[in-house]
Specification:
heterodimer, A: alpha+beta, Beta-galactosidase, Chain A, domain 5, eight-stranded parallel sheet, seven-stranded antiparallel sheet, 10 helices, 36 strands, globular, B: alpha+beta, two-stranded antiparallel ribbon
Chain lengths: 666, 67
């Protein structure tokens, strides 16, 4: 699937990085394996010097290349099986029981200069079975007697082949190389997409590549991976520094579905906990009786979990015995009925005090954070917050944490906070605290909803990608917007990685036209909103005081949940995009999974005020079906369809006005 | 020449090339076969195992290969 070739002498260097399925060579020039800035001075790790022509690399040139005299030198390598990054513990329904397997090779380097004596560097490569994926990371060991200041760790440097050439144009006007998808576990900013959350990928020009078509030498052909705002990390004797983990996934072509599917498969391998997907309700409650009632409703309808939403009668920061005992009793009540229980807690986007908030380096005063004010995770309050959350979960047996306002990368210029030294190390240290908390909870079996890109360090679910203000719009608009959000949110995320939102009661305005309550008066809308989300395999926050208000409503919820559970495996499978909702014609998605007996399930919607009949091409390639498909509408009779040469079938369907239907493929 | 005649001539030329030069058409089929092969790991991932190989001439090869 891929190969990466290294030469060991006179220093270790990568000489070949090829996608074997397409024969595409990724690199045009040798580079160092990594680059470190220590005590203010830059050092290369491995690599060779001397390449003149940098548009391509010929093996016969390698013998003429030399090692840099100040560079870290390769010593040896070690081979072992990949170990899981997290000892994840799962207490919920999941489509995946184990993570990826494979092999890891670590290259050991030692410094060539006296001033770095005591340091050792390991460059680690993990190769995964069944997927063209390499994860590269770097570990620095301080085995000496003095403290080193780590100012920058560039853990991947690649002289990559340009994606396109142009005689003129600035760096950001060029398309960056598309042959490898890069993702690291250092991502945030509340975007709900990795591309916008990424904090480490740097595409640079290479002025030493003189034969490039760009006269200004502006082609983005040099990749460097490092966190921008993480200098000044002290590494004391016997301490170990672990870099960000760079995921490198080979891409075969430019097809959006194909590329997105590859990324979705990657999460199953490196973050398998994200496949867990409990059915939960988002309760708004003021009294404990209301919580117990909601637990009873969950148990009666097949729901599996209850989350006390924001504005409810739960405060996880209260570590008094009285509070812990109260919620322990509630958790016991839920568990006795087979229901998991969780709650909401806000970290960032709030003001604690001038002493505990992040300090803006521009003003040296609180403020300047992504959401205006934010507590510093390294402050006394921030560290206590972490401890209180851990204590709450340990003492009460709660199962789910909905952590709003995850640490969003706010730097802090305070020099009095115990969790960081000053401005320089404030982001890295706060990230460590945030990641540490998520990892601890994950390893204790707690399911984590958190709206920022911390998947690779333990969270399970992120917001789908929606605008909260839209939930005050009329239900008719919400239905179409929700389907657009689902469609757009399923390119790089599996269904279990997202949550949606259904305001049963008013949410930010909109009045009766925007809400589902009273449920019994809006059964058709309630059903369709549930089917849109469950039909996409996505759990929504059904936010309100109850799941049902009458027997008829209760039976509706039971019916939908029963249907969801019947098709749960395929509904949790990857989404193939058919047609995005626009309110002007049909729209729909297809779930595909070649590993299941049910290979595909397609949801189709008719937003029009009239019955429609359409014939569409259904792409079945990713179902694994090759010759023929047995197709049935709902629980009807199966009809055999022969596949076209492009693995599609022509399918005709009819949907009544403002309704939906679904098809099963076997 | 009338526009209709140009259209008809173009169609006939295309048909001629299609019938006279099947090799011109073949790459379309090959393309689909290649696409199927390239995408296979998304459909049949169990076939593939990671291997680290060391070559005799002092290099190390990382290789994800089909078992």
């Amino acid at each position: 699937m891929l190969k990466r070739v290294f030469r060991l002498s006179p220093n270790l260097v990568c000489t070949d990085y090829t996608n074997l399925r397409t024969s595409r060579q990724m690199i045009r020039a040798v580079s160092e394996e990594a680059r470190l800035k220590i005590n203010g001075k830059e050092y290369r790790v491995g690599g060779l010097l001397g390449q003149q022509e940098k548009a391509y690399l010929l093996p016969e040139w390698l013998d003429q290349f030399t090692a840099g005299t100040l560079d870290f030198r390769y010593v040896s390598y070690e081979l072992k099986a990949i170990t899981q990054q997290l000892k994840w513990k799962n207490n919920f329904w999941t489509s995946r029981e184990m993570g990826g397997t494979g092999k890891m090779i670590s290259f050991l380097f030692v410094p060539a200069v006296h001033e770095l004596e005591g340091l050792e560097v390991k460059v680690n490569y993990e190769l995964y079975d069944g997927i063209p994926l390499i994860v590269k990371s770097l570990t620095i060991y301080n085995k000496g007697q003095k403290t080193f200041k780590i100012d920058r760790v560039v853990n991947e440097v690649l002289g990559m082949v340009e994606e396109e050439s142009a005689v003129a144009g600035e760096l950001n006007q060029f398309k960056v190389p598309q042959g490898i998808y890069f993702e690291t576990n250092y991502a945030f900013n509340n975007a709900m997409r990795y591309a916008q959350s990424d904090q480490t990928t740097h595409w640079k020009a290479d002025s030493t590549y003189t034969s490039q078509v760009s006269y200004g030498k502006n082609s983005p052909v040099l990749l460097e991976i490092y966190p921008e705002k993480a200098p000044g990390i002290n590494l004391a004797p016997s301490e170990v520094f672990n870099s960000v983990r760079t995921h490198e996934l080979m891409m075969d072509n430019d097809d959006r579905e194909n590329r997105g599917l590859a990324v979705r498969k990657m999460y199953g391998v490196v973050a398998p906990w994200t496949a867990a997907n409990p059915i939960f309700m988002h309760l708004v409650s003021k009294k404990d009786d209301e919580v117990r009632n909601a637990i009873d409703q969950c148990a009666a309808t097949g729901y599996e979990a209850l989350i006390l939403s924001f504005g409810s009668n739960l405060n996880m920061e209260d570590n008094t015995d009285k509070n812990l005992s109260r919620w322990k009793a509630m958790a016991d009540y839920a568990h006795e009925r087979g229901i998991r229980i969780g709650g909401y807690s806000l970290f960032s986007s709030r003001k604690i005090s001038d002493q505990q908030d992040v300090i803006d380096p521009k003003t040296n005063k609180p403020g300047g954070a992504l959401f205006g004010n934010a507590p510093c995770f390294g402050s006394v309050w921030g560290l206590n917050y972490r401890d209180h959350i851990q204590t709450f979960f340990t003492a009460t047996g709660f199962d789910i944490w909905e952590n709003d306002g995850p640490y969003a990368g706010d730097v802090c210029a305070s020099v009095t906070h115990p969790g960081h030294k000053g401005l320089e190390d404030s982001q890295w240290r706060q990230m460590e605290i945030q990641k540490g908390l998520y990892r601890w909870l994950n390893e204790h079996g707690v399911y984590i909803n958190a709206p920022d890109w911390y998947f690779l360090d333990g969270i399970h679910k992120i917001a789908l990608g929606y605008k909260e203000a839209n939930f005050k719009l009329p239900r008719e608009q919400q239905k179409i917007l929700n389907r657009q959000n689902i469609y757009d949110g399923a390119w790089e995320k599996t269904p279990s990685m997202s949550w949606g939102f259904v305001p049963l009661t008013e949410y930010g305005g909109g009045g009766a036209a925007a809400t589902i309550e009273p449920l019994k008066d809006h059964l058709k809308d309630y059903e369709q909103l549930m089917m849109q989300y469950y039909g996409a395999g996505i759990q929504a926050c059904y936010r309100g005081p109850r799941l049902y208000d009458t027997e008829e409503t209760k039976q509706l919820v039971i019916r939908v949940i029963k249907w969801y559970k019947q098709y749960r495996e395929i509904l949790n499978s990857d989404v193939i995009h058919l047609r995005r909702a626009d309110g002007r014609d049909w729209d729909g998605i297809l779930h595909a999974n070649p590993m299941l007996k049910t290979k595909g399930l397609m949801m189709l919607y008719n937003p029009l005020k009239e019955t429609i009949t359409r014939t569409i091409k259904v792409p079945l390639y990713y179902t694994g079906l090759t010759d023929a498909a047995k197709v049935r509408e709902k629980e009807g009779k199966s009809v055999r369809h022969k596949l076209n040469r492009d693995f599609t079938i022509d399918l005709t369907f009819t949907i009544p006005a403002e309704d939906y239907t679904w098809f099963v493929f076997e | 020449m009338k526009p209709g005649l140009i259209k008809n001539s173009f169609f006939i030329c295309c048909l001629f090339f299609y019938l006279a030069s099947p090799a011109q058409v073949l790459p379309v089929w090959t393309g689909f076969k290649d696409a199927e092969k390239v995408n296979d790991w998304l459909v049949k991932p169990d076939m593939l195992k990671a291997e680290v190989l060391k070559s005799a001439d002092g290099r190390i090869l990382f290789y994800i290969m089909v078992c």
